[in-house]
Predict the structure.
Amino acid sequence: MKTLSPLFLFLLLISANSFLPPPPSASAAYHDYADALAKSILFFEGQRSGYLPPDQRLPWRANSGLSDGWTYNADLTGGYYDAGDNVKFGFPLAFTTTMLAWSIIEFADVMPPAELRNSLVAVRWSSDYLLKSVSQLPNRIFVQVGDPNADHNCWERPEDMDTPRTVYAVDAPNPASDVAGETAAALAASSMAFRSSDPGYAETLLRNAAKAFEYADTHRGAYSDNDIIREGACPFYCDFDGYQDELLWGAAWLRRASSDDTYLNYLQENGKTLGAEDNINEFGWDNKHAGLNVLVSKVLIARSSQEVLESSMVTLQSYKASADSFMCTLIPQSSSSHIDYTPGGLIYRPGGSNLQHATTISFLLLAYANYLERTSQSVNCGNLDVSPYALRSQAKRQVDYILGDNPKGLSYMVGYSDNYPQRIHHRGSSLPSVKDHPAAIACKEGSVYFNSTGPNPNVLTGAIVGGPSEDDEYPDDRADFKKSEPTTYINAPFVGVLAYFAANPDFS
């Protein structure tokens, strides 16, 4: 039998709409969310691959990966390196793009104009690359550039990399429902983000989203079931949780972006067979269930119960029920709560890069709170009703923990506050820049920098690292990549989260 922690027992005594702050820390209670927002977006410039523009704001980076795609006579330059390595993995890259775009869709109206522009630039750097990845559809989709095993055997700057830039492509009739479905979602969401500022580009994105989805649905299966792809994608970004959620996720985004009822019918007709009713309480690059349920619920929340009953949307109610159930698992006072927290109050799931869960879940809390508030609704968790305010309070606890309100008083965002990780697991950050050290640093020559106990010479401003362990400890060790490596998919949802709190800094 699991023993209830003292923190859990204490939380049971308080109101559902009043959540305790995390335990006292060495950091100040005030946070400059606007500064954190700007930095969270700036981080993506440090992850850029390809030709860098004149207005590149992290000057220690330079051009890289300029021949990507040549073995297929294709231009696959651009995009983002997923983390601290020099590989472009299509699966997490597409999810990153979706979440960046969703951040804009939900929170553009409260973003400062300069940061809205920077966010759109960050999305376009990725969506341009994704358009290239689907340029040979209907028969081929590019899913990765770079041999990760060779890359991970070296510690070298992206500007110097001499490891194979292997292109991994999936050709029909081989399956790629996961990557193609997520790419469809990313392009559809991006089309919504650009609809007002660049309608022509938005239309191009939406048209290609439909093509990607058609491949995903026609050739069903996981891309990593292909032996050749498995050699490159696994164990890093295999499809561990099945491809079915990406099919529904892609359809949901195409429905929202196009208002085409074809995709609504798809969600209704395929929900049960593709596992929409599997109430899996997770959201990230490999598992879209919780995000899917929140996204589909928006169309139901906006309508009255009678309108839903009188329309064909009644079959979508399972999505809304699952979204409500997911929210209840996050509330410590709820009888269905089962999400684990560290003693300091951070959402915790085993497996490494834990802050990816904290940022994605915080985003869903805020998005769902927005949907509910617009129609004066709450979530019924059996023994209590949970308001939008309560959901936002849970999100704020995660945000403040990440920014420094934690037992170590450490900001897990690099460059934010005076106390942040100095030795992150990131090649470009840890090696001297090409401007300071023009001579190439070969594969194994970088080991001396990897093994150094000194701080990284280049500050990857805005990077959110993997985060602390279940006991709130963080060693600031470059070699401990599960804790010290930043990823694009940790940062992407945090852009929207920070936009909300930057616009509502006095929320408490």
User: Anything to note?
Assistant: The chain is about 45% helix and 5% strand. Confidence is low (pLDDT under 50) at residues 1-28. The chain has one domain: 6-503. The CA atoms of residues 363 and 497 lie 6 Å apart.
